[in-house]
Amino acid sequence: MIDSTRIHYTITNGGIAPNIAPDKASTWYFLRGANRVQVDEVLERVIKIANGAALMTETEVSFEIKAGAYDLNVNNTLNQLMFKQRKTLALSNLRRKTKPLQKLWFKHSIQHHEKPLRKC
């Protein structure tokens, strides 16, 4: 497993008494990684572990993926088109009007140790 990946979990149903195997149990896993490929690799491993545990105990296992997120997918063609349209609309006047707001936000981000937006 890659060092930057993380597996968080909680037992949502573990039975009613310690040291007694319940007839049904459930857990909730939250997997994190630097990118989607890493998370998918960890997910495969978690599923193999669950299937192995079910095989050892002669039980059944099922799972449901509730949510997921993917890496940023930059659309350079759309970015170039939008930049061209911006130049066509001549938004330079708007930029002058928003300068004080940009300075105020930058000052706020410095005070709160946030990363300021990068200029494109």
Q: How would you describe this structure in keywords?
A:
single chain; 120 residues; alpha+beta; elongated
Q: What does the model show?
A:
By secondary structure, the chain is of the alpha+beta class. It has two domains: 52 residues, no CATH class; 36 residues, no CATH class. Helices cover 47% and strands 12% of the residues. It has a two-stranded antiparallel sheet with strand order 1-2. The longest helix has 22 residues.
Q: What is the mean pLDDT?
A: 78
What portion of residues belong to β-strands?
A: 5-15%
| Neighbour order of strands in the largest sheet | 1-2
Report how far apart the termini are: 36 Å
Radius of gyration, whole Å = 25 Å
**Secondary structure tally: strands:** 2
Largest sheet: 2 strands, antiparallel
Q: Low-confidence segments, ≥5 residues, pLDDT <50?
A: 104-117
Total number of helical segments? 3
Tell me the structural class.
alpha+beta
Approximate helicity band? 40-55%
Can you tell me the overall shape?
A: elongated
- What number of structural domains do the residues give? 2
Q: What is the H/E order?
A: EEHHH
Short description:
InterPro entries: Bact_exopeptidase_dim_dom, Peptidase_M20/M20A_hydrolases. One of its GO terms (molecular function) is dipeptidase activity. With 120 residues, this protein is an alpha+beta fold.
